[in-house]
Amino acid sequence: MNRSQWKNGECNGKGIFRGADGIVEYSMYDNGKPTGEGVSWEPDRKSAYGLKDGNRTLEMLVEEAEALSKSKFDLPIPAYYTPTKAPAAGSGLFGWFSSKKQVGPAEAVESKPKEPQKSEAQLTVEKWLKNELPNLNSDDLTSYSKRLLDDGFDSAEMLDHLEAGDVDFMKKAHRRVLVEKLSKKKTSETSENGS
User: Fold this and answer.
1) Fewer CB within 10 Å, N or C, the chain?
2) What's the Cα-to-Cα distance from 115 to each of 80, 82, 177, rounded to whole Å?
3) Residue ranges per domain, the chain?
4) What percentage of the chain has pLDDT greater than the value 70?
5) To the nearest 10°, the Cα dihedral for 119, 70, 20, 11?
6) Which CATH code for domain 6-73?
7) Dihedral sign, CA of 66, 28, 10, 53?
């Protein structure tokens, strides 16, 4: 459990549970127990389930889950889950006892898992979003770029055809700024073509 509200050593209020398998659950808690309606996101973030008192109910449309996440918990779709490899034999807290290899100080340092390679389309969309909404946080950048890519806006040419209705999934303030910029670009292009 992290990013939760705590009182007297128990989770109270909004809580986020992140499972080792990549499942993320948004719930309300009362004295450490999940209560009421919540959302359980699958690791691929393409499917989600409703929660009732911490128990899974029916599968939800991603749009419904996203709307509930925003309205009840003020949270976006969780970032895409990338599994990490299990530690090799002989590693971990007591791994040096069973390791046959002598390990020096430089070799004992664990490295962070590598970030997955981003596609050219993903890089293009993220660059475009950063240009249009420079103060976008990384969670929103990931969520928005994924949604745009899923809807086929996977190149600069496709992004040129973006319309206000195509960004309904964005937070209201981000959507307003972007729609305003898109409108100005269209007006500018129309006046250039008309003269």
Assistant:
1) C
2) 12, 8, 30
3) 6-73, 120-194
4) 79
5) 160
6) 2.20.110
7) negative
